[in-house]
Amino acid sequence: WLLAWGGTSYWELRRVPLGLWATGSRLRQEDFPPRIVEHPSDLIVSKGEPATLNCKAEGRPPPTVEWYKDGERVETDRENPRSHRMLLPSGSLFFLRIVHGRRSKPDDGSYVCVARNYLGQAISHNASLEVASKFLLTCVCFFFVEFFLLLVSWQCH
């Protein structure tokens, strides 16, 4: 149990086999809470393609980083070796392939990274990951091809 916390020191009480044990410590001057130095950006990715949501945090001691999607913690390869999501040493979240279907939970949503150490936590800006629609891409490409052909034929007369 953390008993007291004051500016540069803290006291902790632990239960041990022969009773209770109190310990105290002074914080090292160089320790500081986490801060996000690289926030993730919005992404639009095709289904089945790889993607990376970047996040970089600083702090001392170095913070641990976790990701949340739509308010729920994201499972990565650290908890499940079969996961298609990898937490990189930098804190970024790498997707081996973007999943978007009925058989598994889709990857599209709003993501934040949270960096923590014993002095506190820092939360990144929201970043949305959207799965590109093949129909939309086909329509846009078709429109530009038609427009380009119309423009070329107009100039040839």
Task: Summarize this entry quickly.
The protein has 157 residues and is mostly beta strands. It has one helix at 134-156, and strands at residues 2-6, 9-16, 19-26, 32-38, 43-46, 51-53, 56-60, 64-69, 72-73, 85-87, 93-95, 109-117, 120-123, 127-132.
Describe this structure in words.
By secondary structure, this protein is mainly beta. It folds into two domains: 1-30, no CATH class; 32-156, Immunoglobulin-like. Helices cover 15% and strands 46% of the residues. It has one helix at residues 134-156, and strands at 2-6, 9-16, 19-26, 32-38, 43-46, 51-53, 56-60, 64-69, 72-73, 85-87, 93-95, 109-117, 120-123, 127-132. Strands 5, 8, 9, 12, 13 and 14 form a six-stranded mixed β-sheet that branches. The longest helix is centred in the last third of the chain and has 23 residues, at 134-156. The chain is elongated, with a radius of gyration of 24 Å. Residues 34-130 form the Ig-like domain. One of its GO terms (molecular function) is cell-cell adhesion mediator activity.
Task: Compile the SSE list and pairings.
Elements: E1 2-6, E2 9-16, E3 19-26, E4 32-38, E5 43-46, E6 51-53, E7 56-60, E8 64-69, E9 72-73, E10 85-87, E11 93-95, E12 109-117, E13 120-123, E14 127-132, H1 134-156
Parallel strand pairs: 5-14
Antiparallel strand pairs: 1-2, 2-3, 4-7, 6-11, 8-9, 8-12, 10-11, 12-13, 12-14
